[in-house]
What we know:
The complex is a heterodimer of chains A (about 100) and B (about 290). With about 100 residues, chain A is an alpha+beta fold. Chain A has helices at about 40-45, 75-80; strands at about 25-30, 50-55, 60-65, 85-90. Chain A has a domain at about 30-90: 2-Layer Sandwich (Alpha-Beta Plaits). The interface between A and B is medium-sized, with 33 and 37 residues. One iron/sulfur cluster (SF4) binds near residues 10, 16, 125 and 206 of chain B.
Amino acid sequence: MAKMKLYIGASNPPMSSEMKTGDWGTELAYIDKEKCIACGQCITFCPEPATSMVEEDDKKYAVVNHDYCKGCWICFTVCPVDAIEMRTKDIYKVEVC
Amino acid sequence: MNYFGPGHGACPGCGFPIAIRGAIEALDGKVIAVNSTGCLEIVSSMYGRNTWGVPYIHSLFENAGAVAAGIETALKALKRDKEAHVVVFAGDGATFDIGIGTLSGMMDRDHNVIYICYDNEAYQNTGNQQSMATPPGARTTTTPVGKLQPGKIGKKKDMVEIAVAHNIPYAASASIAYPKDFQRKVKRASEFEGSKYIQVHAPCVTGWGIDGKLTVEVARLAVETGLYPLVEYEHGKLVKVRKLKQRKPVEEYLKIQRRFRHLFKHEMGKDILDQLQRIADENAEKYGLDA
Ligand SMILES: Cc1ncc(C[n+]2csc(CCOP(=O)(O)OP(=O)(O)O)c2C)c(N)n1
Ligand code: SF4
Ligand code: SF4
Ligand code: SF4
Ligand SMILES: [Mg+2]
């Protein structure tokens, strides 16, 4: 008997990474590589996740993928060394005269 | 490959994705996910844009317990039950209210399933209607604030105790503010054969009236005030409780959320505030929370 593969509903493999949800928010998180102590808190708590750990010349630090950062501030609130800064996107900077 | 996300559609600052990814990572991705209707389902299973890196099924709002029981039974019949844990992820509405029948059946037959309820304390996907997990005083669209009513009248149902009363091997409460504790509990649950119930407190930014800056703090304050005690039962015995060095007054938790703000001005607000403090005090007494 011929076998048929049928995917019902959700996609396989996961395809949500095509959704660049980083354009949702008005702000983006930026991590100061020098201040970061690579504790991983921002990775544990980022709901997306947009954060990940990288290693470069023996220095481990967290980075934010702005394709997926919704600017929610959670990482900012859990970082123990204030290594994260929230910056308003340029398009939302309005000059008030 | 990620187990959950990125690119899902949860609101910025939503609490439950922290728990979903945390649970799957705690089980090294060896998970067959069963999901009830609700925010988690809607934000993660858009057609062609699935966010799950593990096998996933959604059926109805009310039947996650039955679907999980069926999958677990089928895996046993196929002798493939060692390949993955069957894990339910269900909202509080699905768990406390409409799905309690199928969950009770699952626990009664002691199916080998880890049932995780992410508790955002209302039907959030349909716009914040009360569930039996909604605490007293909370403003929802079905418990509005008016002259005669200061938000929800009535209590939050103790679903952990109801799970324990089914004589299942493991039941616990957890919070997204304490992800290591939650992950340890998920792992511990996976060591038991039979039904396991874990309830994880997960703030909803829109329904609770907070923003992402407060997601983790609010969840932490729920624990630190004694309103959301973190407890753990094995075979019906209370084996672990998160102690509090200095329990905070419930106001600290309530005043920063829009859903409770009216309690500080409403004529009947004081009664509800007293009731909530009494609930925290009773929790402290019952579980020995005060260190
Ligand atoms: C039988 C049935 N009744 C009502 C609905 C509409 N509905 C969809 S999601 C939802 C609320 C889900 O609440 P909860 O389980 O707490 O999950 P949350 O959305 O809060 O994450 C409701 C009422 C439905 N899908 N099926
Ligand atoms: S702001 Fe929110 S979405 Fe962006 S990296 Fe931080 S936690 Fe993740
Ligand atoms: S929380 Fe702060 S210190 Fe820790 S890894 Fe993230 S940026 Fe680095
Ligand atoms: S409505 Fe609430 S629970 Fe649903 S995705 Fe948004 S924040 Fe999360
Ligand atoms: Mg809910």
